[in-house]
Design brief:
Layout (H helix, E strand, L loop, with lengths): L6 H12 L9 H12 L3 H13 L3 H13 L7 H13 L6 H8 L4 H20 L4 H13 L5 H13 L5 H9 L4 H21 L10 H6 L3
Helix pairs in contact: 1-4, 2-3, 3-4, 4-5, 5-6, 5-7, 7-8, 8-9, 9-10, 9-11
Length: about 220
């Protein structure tokens, strides 16, 4: 059975949440309204606003929602749900989610980490289909940092795909993952990514497809 964080951890979570500034995509008024509810002890009202913003894809709200689940205020105490929202933000590049995501996932057993990895991967694939190439990096990080045991081969595949779509930092992460993969598997990964690259070129919205995609090249042929 999960237990609530101790007093020191609760203070740290509260300070973290209240110290965040709104991300550019979020209405500052909405976020400030939610934080006002927290300060006033109206947790349920704050959670409702954080959830709406989190579902819309705002990373600041996602981390704040994670904190509320971790504290069990306005919602039932749920470390698995808190981990989900913290990692959802982190995998799409929210640096402020690093601390909470690490602390929360450390409390999950392997089975629940597997469930979390599957859930995050499904969300990231949906984001990738919208042309958000950072999601490919996130998929690789799921295999290295969320799933147990970690899967460097699968991570290298996603990082290689992210690099093909010119996602920043993907080449460095690809090298890190490939260092743990045997040479024959590295060549197999390259073959798999060639196929994946073409498949994703077809799945992406037209405005997001880079000119290197085989789909675009075929369309441009006389």
């Amino acid at each position: 059975m999960m237990v609530a964080p101790g007093r020191t951890a609760r203070r740290a979570l509260t300070a973290f949440m209240l110290g965040m500034s709104p991300a550019p995509a979020v209405s500052a008024r909405d976020l400030e309204t939610a934080l006002d509810h927290v300060r006033a002890g109206e947790a349920a009202e704050a959670v409702a606003i954080f959830r709406d913003l989190a579902l819309a894809g705002d990373s600041a709200a996602q981390v704040n929602l994670a904190v509320m689940h971790a504290r069990g205020e306005g919602v039932p105490l749920d470390i698995e749900e808190a981990s989900y929202w913290a990692w959802r933000a982190r995998l799409m590049g929210e640096a402020r989610a690093a601390g909470p995501s690490e602390a929360l996932i450390a409390r999950l057993p392997e089975r629940q980490r597997g469930t979390l990895a599957t859930r995050l991967a499904a969300d990231l694939e949906m984001l990738a289909e919208q042309g958000r190439f950072r999601a490919f990096v996130g998929l690789g990080l799921v295999e290295l940092e969320v799933r147990m045991p970690k899967d460097p081969r699968r991570a290298a595949l996603w990082f290689t795909l992210a690099a093909a779509f010119e996602e920043p930092h993907a080449i460095r992460l690809r090298g890190y993952a490939l260092a743990e993969v045997a040479e024959p598997d590295r060549l197999a990964i390259q073959a798999e990514v060639r196929t994946l690259f073409a498949e994703w070129c077809e799945r992406l919205p037209r405005e997001s497809v880079p000119p290197s995609c085989p789909v675009i090249m075929a369309r441009n042929e006389p």
